[in-house]
TrEMBL record:
InterPro entries: PA_dom_sf, PA_domain, Peptidase_M28, Peptidase_M28B, TFR-like_dimer_dom, TFR-like_dimer_dom_sf. It comes from the Eukaryota. Keywords: Carboxypeptidase, Glycoprotein, Hydrolase, Protease, Signal. Belongs to the peptidase M28 family. M28B subfamily. The gene is LOC115749116. Residues 145-229 form the PA domain. Residues 1-19 form the signal peptide. Residues 580-707 form the Transferrin receptor-like dimerisation domain. This is Probable glutamate carboxypeptidase LAMP1 isoform X1. One of its GO terms (cellular component) is membrane.
Length: 712
């Protein structure tokens, strides 16, 4: 009579034996497989780049819509659920432009052609007519005429130097070199100095190999004499007509007059020109000899500052239009925590062909997706949801990512674990990374698992360390910070407060934003074997896998505490004679360090006592609660009121420099207040600095409370 029960018992026993005899591979198995050469493919990543860069594809054009369709199709083929998220945004395109230089007699006037030259054998000559005439995105239409003044890089300190030299910029057209600061800041600084227009050129010393017998593309990596760096001069972030809210169909939009009042679009016309044209203008200048560090390459003419006697007449007319842009979003849903998001992002739109910027990153993104698709086919499922984001209209001012973040702000604020950005993935050798500090250790650990594509005897970590003064085995090796507004991490970090990282090989490259940034340049000089593309995909995907799969989020806020301490000490040194009280800030940082130490201890304790009891709900909820504290601490640094005069930027620890959107500042609100106080030097202005110190102190204290998870 016990036979049925015995049969049932044997059946259960057999099932359990089978279950425990063939356990699912651990997540780490799939992570190792992700790095295996058996599932990576440099031919595939090269094909992606070739296809994406066959035509110029500026945001809002049919060619860029075709590129979006390609990305969508590729993601879908890799078993990634994908869709298009569209926005209607204000973009600008050139209608006409002209530039004429009047020189003292008997020299004739020069009418510049403003054209980038096709070279012999150029495989893209058939589509060269699709390259837009050289222009600045969101440049002001109008005419500017005046004597020329050379302003070096157009920085605030360069205008101070001219003032000391007795050079009056008012009523002139300035000639500035690209480099050092964001081009929008160059135009804005020119306007603030009283100039009527701005010309920005690519100097041979910076982009052309230094002059002399140096060859240029296609015979070498350098910018040809006719090459022009185009780009946006918009100082804001996102659609100028919808500041702070998404540009969905039927949404509220500002008028052109209201946009100008916002202060982020330029108020004087500007044009980018080639190194050859810039040198021609330079030869027309008289006046004082420029400083040694303002001079050009060894065979360039002597650089003088003017004004004149050369006189420029600049005319630009642009078309402002509301165009549809398309973000491609792909989703691999998490099995256990689908409401926690690990996001990988790269933009797709380019000013011309965009082989480096941005489509080396797009090709790497598709490589990551392809590998993860293969892991899905082998039985892997992520613990948390992984989201691929291929942004549009980044070049105009981080438009696509900003609109998407603004539309999804509340969900991202409550669910985003981290955002991992790759823009120009490969422009040469040498790995670089920047992050919010709690990701520093994760970056280093991942870099130790990926081989250096340029030296098979070492890891990325070792090659990365060799570029710094730190020892290759140092755990305090410098990681850059994400304060600047140079790429799509800005909306995540600086607007919402999401932990983030940015990865790339190389750095600045000479044909940046010109028509020579094409597949040929990449194949010859950027990454001939496409091994760097595979390496950046490897570390990008590995970091995403660890964030998506590890039971405890691999965040280390002690790195954050150390970074805060260093920044506070630098601030103390700067303000040592101002009578300001930094004790609240140092006290808040110490509390933050204690909270960081405590949560690390809590995580370690649970890991060390993990056993069968971990399947019980209360332990699961404990893990979830600890992870929520690790995830949400970054949000506490984002103040709802934002920076004074720059309210879109909410993050009080990291933000762009006020006079260089590419630059990164710790405590940007304090820095802004110090700059103003030094200028006006009143008691009220220094009181404002003290107020900003208090604001940062409170933000750090709030982050400590989130980490501790306890009410006061």
């Amino acid at each position: 009579m016990f036979k049925p029960a015995t049969s049932a018992f044997l059946a259960v026993t057999a099932t359990l034996t089978l279950f425990f005899s063939f356990p699912s591979p651990p997540k780490s198995f799939y992570h190792s497989l992700f790095l295996s050469s058996s599932i990576s493919d440099n031919a595939s990543v090269a094909h992606h780049l070739y296809t994406l860069t066959r035509r110029p594809h500026v945001a809002g054009t049919p060619a860029n819509a075709e590129a979006a369709s390609y990305v969508l199709s590729a993601l879908t083929s890799y078993n990634v659920r994908a869709h298009i998220a569209s926005y209607d945004v204000l973009l600008t395109y050139p209608i006409s432009r002209s530039l004429t230089l009047a020189r003292p007699p008997p020299e004739p006037a020069v009418k510049f052609t403003l054209r980038q030259e096709i070279y012999d054998g150029d495989p893209y000559a058939d589509v060269a007519n699709e390259v837009f005439p050289t222009f600045h995105g969101y440049a002001k239409s109008g005419t500017a005429t005046g004597p020329v003044v050379y302003v070096n890089y157009g920085r605030v300190e360069d205008y101070e130097t001219l003032k000391e030299m007795g050079v009056n910029v008012t009523g002139t057209v300035v000639l500035a070199k690209y480099g050092q600061i964001f081009r929008g800041d160059i135009v804005h600084n020119a306007y603030e100095a009283g100039a009527t227009g701005a010309i920005i050129y690519t100097d041979r010393k910076d982009y052309g190999g230094g002059g002399g017998d140096v060859k240029w593309f296609p015979d070498d990596r350098w910018m040809p004499p006719s090459g022009v760096q185009v780009g946006s001069v918009y100082m804001g972030t996102g659609d100028p007509a919808t500041p702070g809210w998404p540009s969905t169909k039927g949404s509220e939009r500002l008028s052109n007059e209201e946009i100008e009042k916002e202060g982020d679009v330029p108020l004087i016309p500007s044009l980018p020109v080639s190194g050859a044209d810039g040198e021609t203008i330079m030869r027309s200048l008289g006046g004082q000899l420029a400083k040694d560090d303002w001079q050009g390459s060894k065979d360039a003419p002597p650089y003088r500052v003017g004004p004149g006697p050369g006189i420029l007449n600049l005319t630009y007319s642009g078309n402002q239009t509301v165009a549809t842009i398309e973000n491609v979003i792909g989703v691999i849903e998490g099995a256990e925590e689908p409401d926690r998001y690990v996001l990988l992002g790269n933009h797709r739109d380019a000013w011309t062909f965009g082989a480096v910027d941005p489509n080396s990153g797009t090709a790497a993104l598709l490589e990551v997706a392809q590998r993860l698709g293969k892991l899905l086919n082998k039985g892997w499922k992520p613990r948390r949801t992984i989201i691929f984001c291929n942004w549009d209209a980044e070049e105009y001012g981080l438009v696509g990512s900003t609109e998407w973040v603004e539309e999804n702000r509340e969900l991202l604020a409550s669910r985003a674990v981290a955002y991992l950005n790759v823009d120009s993935a490969v422009s040469g050798a040498g790995f670089h990374a920047a992050s919010t500090p709690q990701l520093d250790q994760l970056l280093r650990q991942a870099a130790q698992q990926v081989q250096d594509p340029d030296n098979s005897s070492q890891t990325l970590y070792e090659s990365w360390a060799s570029q710094s003064e730190s020892s290759p085995m140092s755990l305090i090796m410098e990681v850059d910070r994400l304060g600047g507004g140079g790429s799509d991490y800005a909306a995540f970090v600086q607007h919402v407060g999401v932990p983030a990282a940015d990865l790339f090989f190389g750095g600045g490259y000479p044909v940046y934003h010109s028509m020579y940034d094409d597949f040929v340049w990449m194949e010859k000089y950027g990454d001939p074997m496409f091994h760097r593309h595979l390496a950046v995909a490897s570390i990008w995907g590995l970091i995403a896998l660890r964030l998506a799969d590890e039971e405890f989020l691999p965040f280390d806020y002690l790195s954050y505490a150390s970074d805060l301490q260093k920044s506070a000490k630098d601030l103390e040194d700067e303000l040592s004679d101002k009578g300001l009280n930094l004790n609240p800030l140092f006290k808040a940082i110490e509390d933050f360090r204690e909270a960081s130490t405590k949560i690390n201890i809590d995580v370690k304790a649970i890991k060390e006592t993990k056993s069968w009891s971990s399947i019980w709900k209360e332990d699961h909820m404990r893990v979830r609660e600890l992870n929520d504290r690790l995830m949400m601490a970054e949000r506490a640094f984002a103040d709802p009121n934002g920076l004074f005069g720059r309210s879109w930027y909410k993050h009080l620890i990291y933000g762009p420099s006020k006079h260089n959107d590419y630059g990164s500042k710790s405590f940007p609100g304090i820095d802004d207040a110090i700059e103003e106080a030094k200028k006006v030097s009143t008691s009220d202005s220094w009181h404002s600095v003290q107020h900003e110190i208090w604001r940062v102190s409170r933000a750090v204290k709030h982050a400590s409370q989130v980490l501790s998870g306890e009410l006061t």
